[in-house]
Amino acid sequence: MGNSGSAVKVCADHQGGINWLSLSPDGQRLLTGSEDGTARLWSTADSQCHGHFQGHESYITFCHLENEAAFTCSADHTIRKWDVMTGQCLAIYRGHTSIVNRILVAKDYLFSGSYDRTARCWSVDKEKQIQEFRGHRNCVLTLAHYSSRDVLEEEEEEEQEEEKVSRDLLVTGSTDCTVKVWWVSSGRCYQTLLGHTGAVLCLILDAPNRELFSGSTDYTIRTWNIVTGEQLKVFKEHQGSVICLELVNRHLYSGSADRTVKCWLVDTGERIQTYKAHKHSVSTLKYHAGILFTGSGDACARAFNSKSGVLQKIFRGHKFIINCIQIHNELLYTASHDGTLRIWDIRGICKRNKRRLKKERSAQGRGSQKGSLSRLFNNKVGCMVQQENGE
């Protein structure tokens, strides 16, 4: 394992901690939202700041970047939409009565979750609130969205009375220990998922498999059938709050306050790997090309071989917790509460990992070929024995 030198670049334009980092769908830009009440737009081509969005009256909690528009939410109770080319504020969404801590953009909808115990749906273009989702007994921390057509068969859809109006559903996780599923069109709660005994901190949705995963301060991850609301499995081995989740190829990765990440087989619930070495909570994680990247409260980012669990590299330089990471063009971007965005070259790790994967596949191929020859030989021997016995 080699430790890193310094970052390729340190971007220190913000005057306060960076709470979130978002990558545009086309990979050309990054957006950072900060405690200083501003957001900044960065080019992935030259790593320069190309936009400074000012207007919020308090710190920015979360941000989301599309190709042509940026969205930020704030402790000033508002959400703002920005033009990425001009930096102009295009819309202000008002209605929440407390800190807005999470936003999600899906199709023409903008969803938000707040400490005021509500989630809301807005028209992206009309600056207008479409729906309010009221029913949680405490703040809404995390959001997910899906369409019923993603999870229901045609005959099942016909049974849903709301389907005639809208197919969209919103999922909310709250500090009241529940997950709720709502019809977007009516604001009606479709299901309340009960089981957690602590705040729900993170959600991840696998709509094609009708599954929802939730991580909580009760140290567990739970998986739910989002059609029936049935709790399918409980993953129990963490010894601290589950802070972040990542789902890749039916493998679930969970980062925890117990200073570890664990990898689980979704289909069986078996824990197959634990990634150690963190000296504080694991605050964020990202899977890329067979490598698991993590950010921690110990101010370091790390790279693990996702299969073996071996620590491959430590990225040192930040002074406080790493809140978010992104990966693009074999560059790792880390955003920290120390106010800096750091950029790291991960080509070496990716290249080594690709070589390792190639060797493993080649070895598996040879093993498979040997197995085929062995089966062929055994079949021939079997036929000869049968012929000798006159069968």
UniProtKB/TrEMBL annotation:
PROSITE patterns: WD_REPEATS_1, WD_REPEATS_2, WD_REPEATS_REGION. Keywords: Repeat, WD repeat. The keyword Transmembrane helix does not apply. WD repeats lie at residues 11-43, 93-132, 169-192, 193-234, 235-274, 315-347. Signal peptide: none annotated. InterPro entries: WD40/YVTN_repeat-like_dom_sf, WD40_PAC1, WD40_repeat_CS, WD40_repeat_dom_sf, WD40_rpt, WDR86-like. The keyword Chaperone does not apply. Pfam families: WD40. This is WDR86 protein. The lineage of its organism: Eukaryota, Metazoa, Chordata, Craniata, Vertebrata.
